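Quick one:
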Amino acid sequence: MVALHTTIAIVAIVALIIRFKVDPVISLIIGSIYLGLAAGVGFEKTVEAITGGFGEIMAKVGLLIGFGVLIGSLLHAMGTFRKLVGTLIGVFGAKRMPYAMTTAMSTIFPSIYVDVQVVLASPVARSAAPHIGDRGLPHLAGAIGAGIFAGYVFMIPGLAAISICALLDIRLGNWLIYGIILGPLTAILTTLIYGLLLRAGWWKKDRDEEYDEALAELEAQDLADAEAGASEVTRTPPLGVALLPILIPLLMIAFGAFAEVLEFNTPFIDFLGNATIALFVGLLGAFLLARKYRGTDGTNEALSEGFHTTGEILLITGIGGSLGQVIDETGLDETLAGLFTADAGAPVIVSILLAWFIAALLHIAIGSVSVAAIAAGGIIGPVLPSIDVSPIAIGLAIASGALFALHVNSNFFWMFKSLLGLSTTGALKSLTTVTTIASLTSLPIVIALGLAL
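Output:
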Protein backbone atom coordinates (compact mmCIF):
# COMPACT_ATOMS: atom_id res chain seq x y z
CA MET A 1 0.00 0.00 0.00
CA VAL A 2 2.91 2.35 0.64
CA ALA A 3 3.94 2.13 -3.02
CA LEU A 4 0.35 2.82 -4.09
CA HIS A 5 0.03 5.87 -1.86
CA THR A 6 3.41 7.15 -3.05
CA THR A 7 2.25 6.78 -6.65
CA ILE A 8 -0.98 8.61 -5.86
CA ALA A 9 0.96 11.41 -4.15
CA ILE A 10 3.32 11.85 -7.10
CA VAL A 11 0.49 11.73 -9.66
CA ALA A 12 -1.44 14.27 -7.57
CA ILE A 13 1.58 16.59 -7.45
CA VAL A 14 2.01 16.34 -11.21
CA ALA A 15 -1.72 16.91 -11.82
CA LEU A 16 -1.83 19.93 -9.52
CA ILE A 17 1.14 21.52 -11.27
CA ILE A 18 0.06 20.77 -14.84
CA ARG A 19 -3.72 20.54 -14.88
CA PHE A 20 -4.63 23.03 -12.17
CA LYS A 21 -1.59 25.33 -12.48
CA VAL A 22 -0.84 25.13 -8.76
CA ASP A 23 2.60 26.37 -7.72
CA PRO A 24 5.11 23.49 -7.28
CA VAL A 25 5.75 24.47 -3.63
CA ILE A 26 2.08 24.15 -2.70
CA SER A 27 1.71 20.99 -4.79
CA LEU A 28 4.68 19.30 -3.14
CA ILE A 29 3.43 20.14 0.36
CA ILE A 30 -0.04 18.76 -0.44
CA GLY A 31 1.52 15.57 -1.80
CA SER A 32 3.79 15.24 1.23
CA ILE A 33 0.90 15.66 3.69
CA TYR A 34 -1.26 13.16 1.82
CA LEU A 35 1.53 10.60 1.65
CA GLY A 36 2.42 10.90 5.32
CA LEU A 37 -1.17 10.54 6.53
CA ALA A 38 -2.28 7.91 4.01
CA ALA A 39 0.81 5.75 4.56
CA GLY A 40 0.35 5.73 8.33
CA VAL A 41 3.23 7.98 9.32
CA GLY A 42 0.85 9.88 11.58
CA PHE A 43 0.03 13.56 12.11
CA GLU A 44 2.96 14.49 14.29
CA LYS A 45 5.63 12.54 12.42
CA THR A 46 4.36 13.82 9.06
CA VAL A 47 4.88 17.40 10.20
CA GLU A 48 8.26 16.49 11.68
CA ALA A 49 9.27 14.85 8.39
CA ILE A 50 8.22 17.88 6.34
CA THR A 51 10.04 20.37 8.55
CA GLY A 52 12.98 18.08 9.19
CA GLY A 53 13.45 17.28 5.52
CA PHE A 54 13.35 20.96 4.66
CA GLY A 55 15.91 21.80 7.31
CA GLU A 56 18.19 18.92 6.39
CA ILE A 57 18.50 19.83 2.73
CA MET A 58 18.85 23.53 3.57
CA ALA A 59 21.77 22.67 5.84
CA LYS A 60 23.40 20.94 2.89
CA VAL A 61 22.69 23.28 -0.02
CA GLY A 62 21.12 26.49 1.30
CA LEU A 63 24.33 28.51 1.39
CA LEU A 64 25.64 26.89 -1.79
CA ILE A 65 22.56 27.88 -3.79
CA GLY A 66 22.49 31.35 -2.28
CA PHE A 67 26.18 32.03 -2.94
CA GLY A 68 25.96 30.66 -6.49
CA VAL A 69 22.95 32.79 -7.42
CA LEU A 70 24.50 35.93 -5.95
CA ILE A 71 27.76 35.37 -7.83
CA GLY A 72 25.81 35.06 -11.06
CA SER A 73 23.77 38.17 -10.33
CA LEU A 74 26.86 40.28 -9.62
CA LEU A 75 28.72 39.06 -12.71
CA HIS A 76 25.65 39.64 -14.86
CA ALA A 77 25.44 43.21 -13.58
CA MET A 78 29.04 43.78 -14.67
CA GLY A 79 28.35 42.53 -18.20
CA THR A 80 30.67 39.55 -17.76
CA PHE A 81 28.58 37.02 -19.65
CA ARG A 82 27.82 39.36 -22.52
CA LYS A 83 31.52 40.09 -22.87
CA LEU A 84 32.27 36.35 -22.80
CA VAL A 85 29.85 35.67 -25.64
CA GLY A 86 31.33 38.52 -27.68
CA THR A 87 34.81 37.12 -27.13
CA LEU A 88 33.70 33.69 -28.32
CA ILE A 89 32.48 35.18 -31.58
CA GLY A 90 35.77 37.00 -32.08
CA VAL A 91 37.94 33.98 -31.29
CA PHE A 92 36.07 31.12 -32.92
CA GLY A 93 34.19 32.88 -35.73
CA ALA A 94 30.57 32.36 -36.68
CA LYS A 95 31.06 28.92 -38.23
CA ARG A 96 32.30 27.39 -34.98
CA MET A 97 29.91 29.33 -32.79
CA PRO A 98 27.50 26.43 -32.06
CA TYR A 99 30.31 24.45 -30.43
CA ALA A 100 31.84 27.47 -28.69
CA MET A 101 28.44 28.52 -27.35
CA THR A 102 27.44 25.09 -26.10
CA THR A 103 30.83 24.62 -24.39
CA ALA A 104 30.60 27.98 -22.62
CA MET A 105 26.97 27.38 -21.62
CA SER A 106 27.77 23.99 -20.10
CA THR A 107 30.88 25.06 -18.16
CA ILE A 108 30.83 28.74 -17.19
CA PHE A 109 27.21 29.88 -17.50
CA PRO A 110 25.63 27.46 -14.94
CA SER A 111 26.45 30.03 -12.29
CA ILE A 112 23.44 32.03 -13.50
CA TYR A 113 19.86 30.94 -13.94
CA VAL A 114 18.65 29.32 -17.13
CA ASP A 115 16.23 32.12 -18.05
CA VAL A 116 19.02 34.72 -17.79
CA GLN A 117 21.28 32.49 -19.87
CA VAL A 118 18.86 32.33 -22.77
CA VAL A 119 18.19 36.07 -22.58
CA LEU A 120 21.94 36.72 -22.89
CA ALA A 121 22.59 34.14 -25.58
CA SER A 122 19.60 34.61 -27.91
CA PRO A 123 20.61 38.00 -29.42
CA VAL A 124 24.06 36.60 -30.20
CA ALA A 125 22.54 33.50 -31.82
CA ARG A 126 20.21 35.56 -33.99
CA SER A 127 22.97 37.93 -35.09
CA ALA A 128 25.51 35.16 -35.80
CA ALA A 129 23.02 32.87 -37.57
CA PRO A 130 23.18 34.56 -41.03
CA HIS A 131 26.94 34.09 -41.10
CA ILE A 132 26.54 30.33 -40.67
CA GLY A 133 23.88 29.78 -43.35
CA ASP A 134 20.29 28.59 -43.58
CA ARG A 135 20.82 26.16 -40.72
CA GLY A 136 22.55 28.76 -38.56
CA LEU A 137 19.64 29.72 -36.30
CA PRO A 138 18.44 26.18 -35.49
CA HIS A 139 22.01 24.96 -34.95
CA LEU A 140 22.77 27.80 -32.54
CA ALA A 141 19.39 27.41 -30.83
CA GLY A 142 20.05 23.72 -30.32
CA ALA A 143 23.57 24.42 -29.07
CA ILE A 144 22.24 26.93 -26.54
CA GLY A 145 19.54 24.56 -25.28
CA ALA A 146 21.94 21.62 -24.98
CA GLY A 147 24.62 23.67 -23.25
CA ILE A 148 22.29 25.36 -20.78
CA PHE A 149 20.72 22.16 -19.50
CA ALA A 150 23.78 19.92 -19.67
CA GLY A 151 25.49 22.46 -17.44
CA TYR A 152 22.41 22.76 -15.24
CA VAL A 153 22.30 19.06 -14.35
CA PHE A 154 25.95 18.01 -14.55
CA MET A 155 28.06 21.04 -13.70
CA ILE A 156 28.63 22.69 -10.32
CA PRO A 157 27.07 25.12 -9.38
CA GLY A 158 24.05 24.16 -11.53
CA LEU A 159 20.99 23.99 -9.29
CA ALA A 160 19.94 20.49 -10.37
CA ALA A 161 23.46 19.15 -9.81
CA ILE A 162 23.75 20.68 -6.34
CA SER A 163 20.30 19.42 -5.35
CA ILE A 164 21.02 15.86 -6.49
CA CYS A 165 24.30 15.86 -4.55
CA ALA A 166 22.50 17.01 -1.39
CA LEU A 167 19.70 14.47 -1.65
CA LEU A 168 22.06 11.57 -2.35
CA ASP A 169 24.73 12.78 0.10
CA ILE A 170 27.41 13.16 -2.59
CA ARG A 171 30.35 15.50 -2.04
CA LEU A 172 30.35 18.29 -4.60
CA GLY A 173 34.05 17.83 -5.24
CA ASN A 174 33.56 14.17 -6.13
CA TRP A 175 30.65 15.06 -8.41
CA LEU A 176 32.68 17.81 -10.09
CA ILE A 177 35.34 15.34 -11.21
CA TYR A 178 32.76 13.63 -13.40
CA GLY A 179 30.45 16.55 -14.13
CA ILE A 180 33.17 18.80 -15.50
CA ILE A 181 33.75 16.17 -18.21
CA LEU A 182 30.24 14.84 -18.70
CA GLY A 183 28.57 18.27 -18.97
CA PRO A 184 30.51 19.74 -21.91
CA LEU A 185 30.95 16.31 -23.52
CA THR A 186 27.19 15.79 -23.56
CA ALA A 187 26.60 19.31 -24.87
CA ILE A 188 29.19 19.00 -27.67
CA LEU A 189 28.05 15.53 -28.77
CA THR A 190 24.43 16.69 -28.75
CA THR A 191 25.28 19.75 -30.85
CA LEU A 192 27.19 17.55 -33.30
CA ILE A 193 24.35 15.02 -33.63
CA TYR A 194 21.80 17.80 -33.97
CA GLY A 195 23.90 19.37 -36.73
CA LEU A 196 23.73 16.07 -38.63
CA LEU A 197 19.95 16.04 -38.23
CA LEU A 198 19.76 19.54 -39.66
CA ARG A 199 21.86 18.50 -42.64
CA ALA A 200 19.43 15.64 -43.23
CA GLY A 201 16.56 18.13 -43.66
CA TRP A 202 15.16 18.24 -40.13
CA TRP A 203 14.53 22.01 -40.27
CA LYS A 204 11.99 23.82 -42.47
CA LYS A 205 12.69 27.52 -42.23
CA ASP A 206 9.29 28.69 -43.45
CA ARG A 207 7.46 26.64 -40.79
CA ASP A 208 9.97 26.55 -37.95
CA GLU A 209 11.03 30.19 -37.74
CA GLU A 210 8.99 33.31 -37.05
CA TYR A 211 10.15 36.85 -37.71
CA ASP A 212 9.32 39.16 -34.84
CA GLU A 213 9.86 42.78 -35.86
CA ALA A 214 9.68 44.10 -32.30
CA LEU A 215 12.18 41.51 -31.13
CA ALA A 216 14.48 42.36 -34.02
CA GLU A 217 14.43 46.04 -33.05
CA LEU A 218 15.22 45.21 -29.41
CA GLU A 219 18.00 42.92 -30.56
CA ALA A 220 19.51 45.61 -32.79
CA GLN A 221 19.44 48.06 -29.89
CA ASP A 222 20.98 45.48 -27.59
CA LEU A 223 23.83 44.85 -29.99
CA ALA A 224 24.35 48.57 -30.50
CA ASP A 225 24.60 49.01 -26.73
CA ALA A 226 27.12 46.20 -26.55
CA GLU A 227 29.28 47.77 -29.27
CA ALA A 228 29.13 51.12 -27.49
CA GLY A 229 30.31 49.52 -24.26
CA ALA A 230 26.84 48.53 -23.01
CA SER A 231 24.50 51.25 -21.87
CA GLU A 232 24.01 49.87 -18.37
CA VAL A 233 27.62 48.99 -17.68
CA THR A 234 29.93 51.92 -18.11
CA ARG A 235 33.04 50.12 -16.85
CA THR A 236 33.73 46.42 -16.91
CA PRO A 237 36.67 44.37 -15.64
CA PRO A 238 38.84 42.44 -18.12
CA LEU A 239 37.16 39.15 -19.00
CA GLY A 240 39.87 37.02 -17.39
CA VAL A 241 39.48 38.92 -14.14
CA ALA A 242 35.68 38.91 -14.29
CA LEU A 243 35.59 35.10 -14.58
CA LEU A 244 37.78 34.53 -11.52
CA PRO A 245 34.79 34.41 -9.10
CA ILE A 246 33.63 31.34 -11.02
CA LEU A 247 36.94 29.71 -11.87
CA ILE A 248 38.62 30.00 -8.46
CA PRO A 249 35.82 28.20 -6.54
CA LEU A 250 35.78 25.42 -9.13
CA LEU A 251 39.54 25.00 -8.82
CA MET A 252 39.31 24.98 -5.02
CA ILE A 253 36.58 22.32 -5.02
CA ALA A 254 38.39 20.21 -7.62
CA PHE A 255 41.70 20.47 -5.72
CA GLY A 256 40.03 19.29 -2.53
CA ALA A 257 38.45 16.35 -4.35
CA PHE A 258 41.70 15.27 -6.00
CA ALA A 259 43.53 15.64 -2.68
CA GLU A 260 41.05 13.25 -1.09
CA VAL A 261 41.25 10.75 -3.94
CA LEU A 262 45.07 10.83 -3.98
CA GLU A 263 45.19 10.79 -0.15
CA PHE A 264 47.28 13.90 0.45
CA ASN A 265 44.51 15.95 2.01
CA THR A 266 44.91 17.76 5.32
CA PRO A 267 42.38 19.65 7.47
CA PHE A 268 43.49 22.89 5.80
CA ILE A 269 43.10 21.43 2.31
CA ASP A 270 39.69 20.06 3.26
CA PHE A 271 38.75 23.54 4.46
CA LEU A 272 39.85 25.16 1.19
CA GLY A 273 38.14 22.47 -0.87
CA ASN A 274 34.86 22.75 1.02
CA ALA A 275 32.20 23.89 -1.45
CA THR A 276 30.69 26.43 0.94
CA ILE A 277 34.05 28.10 1.57
CA ALA A 278 34.98 27.97 -2.13
CA LEU A 279 31.74 29.59 -3.26
CA PHE A 280 32.00 32.21 -0.54
CA VAL A 281 35.45 33.12 -1.83
CA GLY A 282 33.87 33.47 -5.28
CA LEU A 283 31.08 35.62 -3.87
CA LEU A 284 33.55 37.85 -2.04
CA GLY A 285 35.55 38.29 -5.24
CA ALA A 286 32.44 39.09 -7.27
CA PHE A 287 31.32 41.57 -4.61
CA LEU A 288 34.65 43.40 -4.61
CA LEU A 289 34.71 43.56 -8.41
CA ALA A 290 31.13 44.85 -8.50
CA ARG A 291 31.90 47.54 -5.93
CA LYS A 292 34.84 48.68 -8.03
CA TYR A 293 33.13 48.64 -11.42
CA ARG A 294 29.46 49.21 -10.58
CA GLY A 295 29.66 51.21 -7.39
CA THR A 296 27.71 50.75 -4.18
CA ASP A 297 24.25 51.34 -5.69
CA GLY A 298 24.81 49.03 -8.65
CA THR A 299 26.19 46.31 -6.40
CA ASN A 300 23.28 46.57 -3.97
CA GLU A 301 20.78 46.42 -6.82
CA ALA A 302 22.41 43.26 -8.21
CA LEU A 303 22.44 41.68 -4.76
CA SER A 304 18.75 42.53 -4.24
CA GLU A 305 17.84 40.78 -7.49
CA GLY A 306 19.95 37.82 -6.45
CA PHE A 307 18.31 37.62 -3.01
CA HIS A 308 14.87 37.66 -4.62
CA THR A 309 15.75 34.80 -6.93
CA THR A 310 17.47 32.86 -4.14
CA GLY A 311 14.35 32.84 -1.97
CA GLU A 312 12.26 31.19 -4.66
CA ILE A 313 14.94 28.60 -5.39
CA LEU A 314 15.52 27.71 -1.76
CA LEU A 315 11.83 27.21 -1.06
CA ILE A 316 11.22 24.76 -3.89
CA THR A 317 14.49 22.95 -3.14
CA GLY A 318 13.64 22.65 0.57
CA ILE A 319 10.14 21.34 -0.11
CA GLY A 320 11.65 18.73 -2.41
CA GLY A 321 13.69 17.62 0.60
CA SER A 322 10.48 17.46 2.66
CA LEU A 323 8.90 15.04 0.19
CA GLY A 324 12.00 12.88 0.30
CA GLN A 325 11.92 12.76 4.11
CA VAL A 326 8.23 11.79 4.17
CA ILE A 327 8.95 9.02 1.66
CA ASP A 328 11.78 7.88 3.92
CA GLU A 329 9.40 7.76 6.91
CA THR A 330 6.91 5.56 5.03
CA GLY A 331 9.43 2.75 4.68
CA LEU A 332 9.17 2.81 0.90
CA ASP A 333 12.91 2.25 0.74
CA GLU A 334 12.38 -1.46 1.40
CA THR A 335 9.92 -1.72 -1.49
CA LEU A 336 12.08 0.25 -3.91
CA ALA A 337 15.16 -1.64 -2.80
CA GLY A 338 13.49 -4.74 -4.17
CA LEU A 339 13.21 -3.03 -7.57
CA PHE A 340 16.74 -1.69 -7.55
CA THR A 341 18.26 -5.00 -6.53
CA ALA A 342 16.40 -6.85 -9.26
CA ASP A 343 18.21 -10.10 -9.80
CA ALA A 344 18.85 -9.42 -13.45
CA GLY A 345 22.23 -10.23 -14.90
CA ALA A 346 23.44 -6.64 -14.57
CA PRO A 347 22.04 -5.01 -11.42
CA VAL A 348 24.15 -1.88 -11.87
CA ILE A 349 22.69 -1.26 -15.31
CA VAL A 350 19.16 -2.02 -14.09
CA SER A 351 19.53 0.39 -11.18
CA ILE A 352 20.90 3.17 -13.38
CA LEU A 353 18.12 2.69 -15.93
CA LEU A 354 15.47 2.79 -13.19
CA ALA A 355 16.91 6.02 -11.76
CA TRP A 356 17.05 7.52 -15.26
CA PHE A 357 13.48 6.43 -16.04
CA ILE A 358 12.02 7.89 -12.83
CA ALA A 359 13.66 11.27 -13.46
CA ALA A 360 12.70 11.29 -17.15
CA LEU A 361 9.08 10.42 -16.39
CA LEU A 362 8.85 13.15 -13.76
CA HIS A 363 10.34 15.72 -16.15
CA ILE A 364 7.97 14.83 -18.97
CA ALA A 365 5.04 15.19 -16.60
CA ILE A 366 6.07 18.23 -14.56
CA GLY A 367 8.05 20.21 -17.11
CA SER A 368 10.77 21.39 -14.73
CA VAL A 369 14.28 19.94 -14.87
CA SER A 370 15.07 21.00 -11.31
CA VAL A 371 11.79 19.79 -9.78
CA ALA A 372 12.13 16.46 -11.61
CA ALA A 373 15.71 16.05 -10.37
CA ILE A 374 14.78 17.00 -6.80
CA ALA A 375 11.71 14.74 -6.73
CA ALA A 376 13.65 11.81 -8.21
CA GLY A 377 16.46 12.36 -5.73
CA GLY A 378 13.94 12.41 -2.88
CA ILE A 379 12.40 9.16 -4.08
CA ILE A 380 15.67 7.32 -4.71
CA GLY A 381 17.79 8.76 -1.90
CA PRO A 382 16.41 6.51 0.85
CA VAL A 383 17.12 3.44 -1.31
CA LEU A 384 20.82 4.04 -1.89
CA PRO A 385 22.09 2.24 1.24
CA SER A 386 20.24 -0.89 0.07
CA ILE A 387 21.85 -1.20 -3.37
CA ASP A 388 25.38 -1.92 -4.46
CA VAL A 389 25.73 0.96 -6.94
CA SER A 390 27.84 4.09 -6.59
CA PRO A 391 25.72 7.07 -5.45
CA ILE A 392 27.50 9.20 -8.05
CA ALA A 393 26.37 6.84 -10.82
CA ILE A 394 22.77 6.98 -9.58
CA GLY A 395 23.00 10.77 -9.25
CA LEU A 396 24.35 11.16 -12.78
CA ALA A 397 21.56 8.87 -14.00
CA ILE A 398 18.99 11.14 -12.35
CA ALA A 399 20.66 14.16 -13.96
CA SER A 400 20.61 12.47 -17.35
CA GLY A 401 16.96 11.49 -17.01
CA ALA A 402 15.90 14.95 -15.83
CA LEU A 403 17.17 16.31 -19.17
CA PHE A 404 14.75 14.24 -21.20
CA ALA A 405 12.36 16.00 -23.60
CA LEU A 406 11.82 19.52 -22.28
CA HIS A 407 8.56 20.54 -23.95
CA VAL A 408 5.44 22.73 -23.90
CA ASN A 409 4.63 22.41 -20.19
CA SER A 410 7.84 24.30 -19.35
CA ASN A 411 7.90 28.09 -19.01
CA PHE A 412 11.44 28.04 -20.36
CA PHE A 413 10.15 26.44 -23.58
CA TRP A 414 8.04 29.48 -24.38
CA MET A 415 10.76 31.94 -23.43
CA PHE A 416 13.19 30.05 -25.66
CA LYS A 417 10.69 30.09 -28.53
CA SER A 418 10.03 33.82 -28.32
CA LEU A 419 13.59 35.03 -27.77
CA LEU A 420 15.01 32.99 -30.64
CA GLY A 421 12.18 33.80 -33.06
CA LEU A 422 10.93 30.23 -33.50
CA SER A 423 7.48 28.80 -34.12
CA THR A 424 6.11 26.28 -31.63
CA THR A 425 7.09 23.54 -34.07
CA GLY A 426 10.55 25.05 -34.34
CA ALA A 427 10.96 25.08 -30.56
CA LEU A 428 9.91 21.42 -30.42
CA LYS A 429 12.34 20.58 -33.24
CA SER A 430 15.19 22.38 -31.48
CA LEU A 431 14.86 22.54 -27.68
CA THR A 432 12.80 19.38 -27.18
CA THR A 433 14.97 17.50 -29.66
CA VAL A 434 18.33 18.50 -28.19
CA THR A 435 17.32 17.81 -24.59
CA THR A 436 16.14 14.38 -25.68
CA ILE A 437 19.40 13.75 -27.55
CA ALA A 438 21.42 15.00 -24.57
CA SER A 439 19.58 12.68 -22.20
CA LEU A 440 20.01 9.64 -24.46
CA THR A 441 23.62 10.52 -25.29
CA SER A 442 24.68 10.91 -21.68
CA LEU A 443 22.95 7.70 -20.49
CA PRO A 444 25.44 5.19 -22.01
CA ILE A 445 28.32 7.25 -20.57
CA VAL A 446 26.68 7.15 -17.14
CA ILE A 447 26.20 3.39 -17.44
CA ALA A 448 29.88 2.95 -18.34
CA LEU A 449 30.89 5.08 -15.33
CA GLY A 450 28.54 3.07 -13.10
CA LEU A 451 30.17 -0.18 -14.16
CA ALA A 452 33.63 1.27 -13.57
CA LEU A 453 32.96 2.85 -10.16
